[in-house]
């Protein structure tokens, strides 16, 4: 078996490959093997969206894929606009704090949004 890097979230040594990603069985985190740093934290804390645009506080973003929301039957649909985002150090890679109409306050990952 080859040497795989430890999980960037919980530092577990029990990572394994699943397709093109590495997976941690302890915390469930998935990441690309070429991503040496945690998602969204590239070059001096700059947070980028799914297509590589740099995000800033107050930006408007669009959700690029349908997201399931626990306790809500429909979830957040792709194409939903989110205005006035705030960039935060969130839990489990969630680095955008926002309010979404019909859902309220929540956190999103920058990998599922695109700058509008």
UniProtKB/TrEMBL annotation:
<comment type="similarity">
    <text>Belongs to the YjdM family.</text>
</comment>
<dbReference type="InterPro" id="IPR013987">
    <property type="entry name" value="YjdM_N"/>
</dbReference>
<dbReference type="Pfam" id="PF08274">
    <property type="entry name" value="Zn_Ribbon_YjdM"/>
</dbReference>
<feature type="domain" description="Protein YjdM N-terminal">
    <location>
        <begin position="4"/>
        <end position="32"/>
    </location>
</feature>
<dbReference type="InterPro" id="IPR013988">
    <property type="entry name" value="YjdM_C"/>
</dbReference>
<dbReference type="Pfam" id="PF03831">
    <property type="entry name" value="YjdM"/>
</dbReference>
<protein>
    <submittedName>
        <fullName>Zinc ribbon domain-containing protein YjdM</fullName>
    </submittedName>
</protein>
<feature type="domain" description="Protein YjdM C-terminal">
    <location>
        <begin position="47"/>
        <end position="116"/>
    </location>
</feature>
<dbReference type="InterPro" id="IPR004624">
    <property type="entry name" value="YjdM"/>
</dbReference>
